[in-house]
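Protein modeling request. Please complete all fields; requests missing the sequence field cannot be processed.
Requester role: graduate student
Desired output: 3D structure, token encoding
Chains: 1
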Amino acid sequence: MGINRKYITIPNLLSFYRIIAFPFILAFALQGFETLFVIFLLVNLFTDILDGIVARAFNQQTEFGARLDSLADLGTYFLAITGVIVFKASDFAPHLLSFGVFMVLFVLANVLSLFKFRRFPSLHLYSWKIGGYIQGIFFFVLFLFGFHAGFYYFMISWGILAFLEHIIIQLIVPEMRSNQKGLYWVLKNK
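Delivered output (190 residues):
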């Protein structure tokens, strides 16, 4: 009973790395090692970008890979939020309402999928992917250059809209299908 070789791809290994790195990065945050936390979380963000590029370039997109990537994304989100709370809480204090709305919608998108489809979402919408890039850049800027309110509100607004699209799609589709483009395409194919 060995591992099925079709699951051993570079994109899946990159996603698996993010999952394995999770407890170490969390420990860095909880122990107050900000520099190590930021470095390893940025590696996670980079490998998240890289796994998608490699999967598309070498035609290695699979349902298993999409689910593994989504699980690794969920962990990376949790780590980023933990880092914000541990290291940058005072920067976010004046913006708790918008950050709270963002967080509630993020949790709702995941909980809805667990209840309706009995699995984490793996839609990988364009809005979600672009939002991930924006959030990654925001995280980089936040920890290297400081908090910028204008960029924060751009990032949070995009994220809220992406979460709403994600939730709406989950409400109207009968089954979770990975790698959807967006609401327009879901409605067009109905």
